Amino acid sequence: MTFERFTALHHGQEPLLLPNAWDHASAAALAAAGFAAVGTTSLGVAAAAGRPDAEGATRAETLALARAIAPLPVPVTVDIEGGFGGSPEQVAELARELAAMGVAGINLEDGRGARLADTAEQTVLISMIKNRVPELFVNARTDPFWLGEPDALATAVRRIKAYVDAGADGVFVPGATAPRDLQTLAAAGDVPLNVLVQPGVPLERLAALGVRRVSYGSLLFRAALGAAVDMALQVARGQAVSGDVPSYERVQRLAGDSRSR
Q: Residue 16: what are its φ and ψ, rounded to 5°?
């Protein structure tokens, strides 16, 4: 049911707007705010743990977060970077473990540092995950735009086709923003196209170009970090605190604990 519910969100009247959380409180707050589903941000998870992003260093932290937020009343999809290393069998087992927790989907990227993973190896990885856990939404991310590849559009199209043939349920192309590129990418595979949110660009505009899912990526984590530092400096300067700060009781409720101080 979770897989079907999450998949259906990609085929509504508007693209699925997916905020990305980095801990239980942020995920619970986003679900309580009315978002239909919640994802995770690997940068936020890594930075919160004092570890580097995209280096396969946060497998334990990612599993712990997934276990904590899977019971939320909305579908949850988890960013597992490139699979945290290991063999395709081990990554498929990780996917099975996440699905057993109640996670609806994963985000699996083909970036490996400053290069792209071998296409054939990535398709094997996707295929093994889908064979092991058919009812887990696999969003296959391809990074030629993100890495500044010289022929990014053509590379992304080739990889989208290969990943869809391997069983991917959706494709994610961060860094792609030009309207013609988005139209080409959306037409490359018969699965939902996911892009990063483009502040100032209406969802309707992206929908008209064929986009079916829009992720916030690390934007919210970076915004929260900046807001916390700004507020700390305001207080240090003796300035009044501005903005709507969640109360202690409200945050406690998000944690599932209604006690108040």
A: -70, 120
Give residue 138's identity as a one-letter amino acid code. Answer: V
CA 261 remoteness from chain centre: 34
Identity of residue 128: M
Strands 115-116 and 111-112: antiparallel
Question: What digits encode the pLDDT tens for the residues 233-255?
Answer: 999 999 998 778 999 999 999 98
Partnered with residue 139 across adjacent β-strands are 107, 170
pLDDT tens digit string along 94-148? 999 999 999 999 999 999 999 999 999 999 999 999 999 999 999 999 999 999 9
pTM attached to this predicted model:
0.95
Is residue 27 a contact partner of residue 69, using CB atoms and an 8 Å limit? yes
Return the HEC string of the chain: CHHHHHHHHHHCCCCEEECEECCHHHHHHHHHCCCCCEEECHHHHHHHCCCCCCCCCCHHHHHHHHHHHCCCCCCEEEECCCCCCCCHHHHHHHHHHHHHHCCCEEEEECEECCEECCHHHHHHHHHHHHHHCCCCEEEEECCCCCCCCCCHHHHHHHHHHHHHHCCCCEEECCCCCCHHHHHHHHHHCCCCEEEECCCCCCHHHHHHCCEEEEECCCHHHHHHHHHHHHHHHHHHCCCCCCCCCCCHHHHHHHCCCCCCC
